[in-house]
C-alpha cells in the first residue's frame, strides 16, 4: 500500500531536486468543479522533465503515491485522492511552454502545463487551428486533456484529444523518460503506448509534453440553430448535412428545451434565438474551404431539411457575433444545470441508431423511480449525450438523496443494454471505478489490471483512479 | 521457451475442439511475398471465436507458440516463424463473415478473416466507403490489416487501419474473449487496449472481429498526375491543394522516374501518361461532396500550381477509366521493383519538413557505399517514403550482398537523425526486431517488454515477432 507524502519526504525531495518548487498545501489543489470530494496532500511543481523523472523515482523508492495535476477541471475525481495514503500532488503548471510550431507540418509541440486556450492561440498565430474545444479551455491543461482523452464540441470532425496527438514525452512509473515526441503521421515501430498513456488518467505515467496536430483554418465558417422534431430527425439531419458538405460539419450539438429553461429560471441573462425555444434543436456549425460559403451551405441545408420534414424552424447566424451567440448559449447550458443542481449527471454515448430509442424510453423508466426533470443535451454527432436528472420545481436535489443511486443505475443499465458507454468523454476517475467494474468487459478489465501492475509495479501512479488498488495481505 | 506444435498436440486439439479444421502443413502458409523466409508448422482453421479461445487456452497450457495468419501479405515476416520451436499456425480464413452493416451509423462489423476487397464491396453495397486501400486488398484480411495497423494510399484523408476501427473482439493470450465490438465514437471507459492490440502484430492476442468505420462515398472524384520540380515543391503543392479543398484531398502519392522506368525495363505493358515520365510527379486524388466538381477543382489547382512554380506539367484524368489508369500505374510500381530485384527496401517516414532534405542528401551518402539506383516513391502526404535501392544495369542484387547491410544502416541512420521512423507502415515483424532495438526509445522498449510479459506470460503469441523473446535459464 502507498505511504503518506510526509513533510519529511517533501523536505528530502526538495533537497534532492533543487529546481523543484514546493507549493505547500494550497486549497485549490484539493478542490474539484463539482464539489464532491476534498483532496489532501502537499503540492510540488517541477520545472523540467528531468525533475519530473527524479521525483517519480523518489516516490517509487519510498512508495509514495502521485496525483498528477493539470488544470483541475476533471469531473470524475481523477485529480482528487480523498482516501488512502496522502499523495504527493504534482502540478505541471511550470512546464507550460509552446516548445515549437511547424505550420508547414501542421504540428505544434506543447508542454503538459500549457493551457488549451494558449495552444489554440499559438496555432492561430501560425495561421492554423488546434481544434480541441471545450467549456473549460481557459484553464484545462494539455497534460490533463490528454490524460483524460478529452472530448468537447469538435470531436465529430477532428476527433478527441487522442486523435489530435502525434507523439508524447512522458515519465514512466519507474521514473524513466520516454522521448516519444514524434511529429510523424505514420510510425509502426512497436506497440501503441502513446494511445495507452492517453486516457489512462495519470495511472500509467506522467505526460510531460505532446506533439499536437494542427489543421488548416476553415476559410468560411457559419452556424445555425435548427429546430427539429426530435433526436431521430436530428440524426437524419446530420446525415443530410454530411452528404452535402462532407467533413465540413464541424459541430452538431443537441439542445433540449430544458437547457435554456434552466438558464432563464436561474437568472442568467442570455439571449434566446427563438422564443419559445423548441423542445429539440441542434446547433450546426460548418467550416468550409476556400471558394465555398458556409452561409449558403446552411441556407441550402435548412431548405432541404424543411422539405424532408427534418426541420420545423431555424435561425441562421449571419455574422460572426451571431454565431458566437449561438455557441455561448450552448456552452452556458452547464451553468444553468449547476444553478438548478443536478440529482445525477450521466455522460453516456450510444450507437447512433440507438439514440432515438433511448431518448424515447428513458423518461418513463425514470418516472417509475421519482418525479424528476431531465436535461438531455450534448454532442449528438458523436452519439454522446449528457443526460442529467434534476428536481421538479419546489424540490431540492437533497430531497432525492435516497433515489440518486437508483436513477444512475437505471440510466446506465439502459445505456449498457443498448451497447453504449457509461463514460463517453469524462473518464473513470474515482467516481466511476465501481461502474467500470459493473459494466466493463471482464477480459478487458483483466488486461487493464495486468498492464497497470506491469508498468507501475509500486502502484504509485494516481492510486485509486480508474482501477481499484489491489487488496494485499 | 515455447514447445513444438507436434502431431500429437494437433491431434489432441482436434479431439478437444470438434469444429476445428485441421489443414495439415500446406506450403502456402510457410511462404511470404518477398521470399526471405520459410515457415514451419501445422495449420488449423477455427470456425468461431469460441474455438479460437479454446485453442489459445490449449496452447497456453502446453506452452505451444501461435502464429496468427491473415492473408499472408505482410512484408516483414510477422506471419513466418522460421526459427525457434515449431508454432501452430492459426488461420482466420473460416471466420470471414460481414456480420452486420449499419449504414446510418457508418459502421460495419467484419470477422478477422474477411478479405479487404469484400469489406470494401459490402460498404459499397450499403452506399458507403471503407477507405482502407492498398495493393494487396484482394487477399489481405481484416485481422492482419489491424494487427499490422496497415496504411496504404488513403491514410492522408482517413487514417490508417487503427483510425478506421471503433472496436474489436479478441482472444487474449490466456484464452479469454474480450467482447469489445463497440460501435461508439466516444468511449472513455478505461485503457485504450483496442489501439494496443491493433499494431501489436499478433503478439498480444488474436483479433477475431472488428467494428469498422465507414465514410460517405464522395459525390465527385477525380485524379491528376502533376509533374513537380521535386519533393519539396510537391509538399507545397499538397498545402495548396488542402487550402483549396480541405479534407477533399484523398490521395497524394509521389512517383519518381525510376518507377515507370523499371516497369518498362522489365516488360510491363503499362500506358504512361507522360512521355518521358518526369523525374518527380505526384498523383493527386480528390473526393468532393455534392455540388462540387473534382475535375474543376483539379483544373483550378493545376493552374494555381503552375503560377506558383509548383507544377511543370500535368495530366488530368477526365474519365473514371483515366483515373483508374493513373492509379494502376501507381500501384504497379512495386511489381517493377520486384522484377528488377531490390538490394534493400526501406519503409520510412519523416517529418514533412525533413523530406526534401533527406531526398537531397541520401543519394550522395549511398553512392559512397556502392553504385546503385534508387526508386523513391510513396505516400508523400503522410511523410511515408518507400526508398528502395537497386542494382545498376548489368549487375544483380546478389552482387551487392556484402553492402546490403551498410545501405540499410545508412538509410535508417539518416532517417533517425531527422526524427523519422524506420517502419512507417509495414511494422516490425521479424525483419526489424534488431532495428527496433537499435533505433527505438529505451523507455518505450522497456514498457513494451513489460506489457508483453504481463499480457502473454506464457510467451505463446507470435513468439519472436516485434520483440526478441526473453532469454531464460
TrEMBL record, chains A, B:
<feature type="domain" description="FAD-binding PCMH-type">
    <location>
        <begin position="36"/>
        <end position="217"/>
    </location>
</feature>
<dbReference type="GO" id="GO:0003824">
    <property type="term" value="F:catalytic activity"/>
</dbReference>
<comment type="similarity">
    <text>Belongs to the FAD-binding oxidoreductase/transferase type 4 family.</text>
</comment>
<dbReference type="InterPro" id="IPR051264">
    <property type="entry name" value="FAD-oxidored/transferase_4"/>
</dbReference>
<keyword id="KW-0274">FAD</keyword>
<dbReference type="Pfam" id="PF02913">
    <property type="entry name" value="FAD-oxidase_C"/>
</dbReference>
<dbReference type="InterPro" id="IPR004113">
    <property type="entry name" value="FAD-bd_oxidored_4_C"/>
</dbReference>
<dbReference type="InterPro" id="IPR016164">
    <property type="entry name" value="FAD-linked_Oxase-like_C"/>
</dbReference>
<dbReference type="GO" id="GO:0071949">
    <property type="term" value="F:FAD binding"/>
</dbReference>
<dbReference type="InterPro" id="IPR016166">
    <property type="entry name" value="FAD-bd_PCMH"/>
</dbReference>
<protein>
    <submittedName>
        <fullName>FAD/FMN-containing dehydrogenase</fullName>
    </submittedName>
</protein>
<keyword id="KW-0285">Flavoprotein</keyword>
<dbReference type="InterPro" id="IPR016169">
    <property type="entry name" value="FAD-bd_PCMH_sub2"/>
</dbReference>
<dbReference type="InterPro" id="IPR006094">
    <property type="entry name" value="Oxid_FAD_bind_N"/>
</dbReference>
<dbReference type="GO" id="GO:0022904">
    <property type="term" value="P:respiratory electron transport chain"/>
</dbReference>
<dbReference type="InterPro" id="IPR036318">
    <property type="entry name" value="FAD-bd_PCMH-like_sf"/>
</dbReference>
<dbReference type="InterPro" id="IPR016171">
    <property type="entry name" value="Vanillyl_alc_oxidase_C-sub2"/>
</dbReference>
<dbReference type="Pfam" id="PF01565">
    <property type="entry name" value="FAD_binding_4"/>
</dbReference>
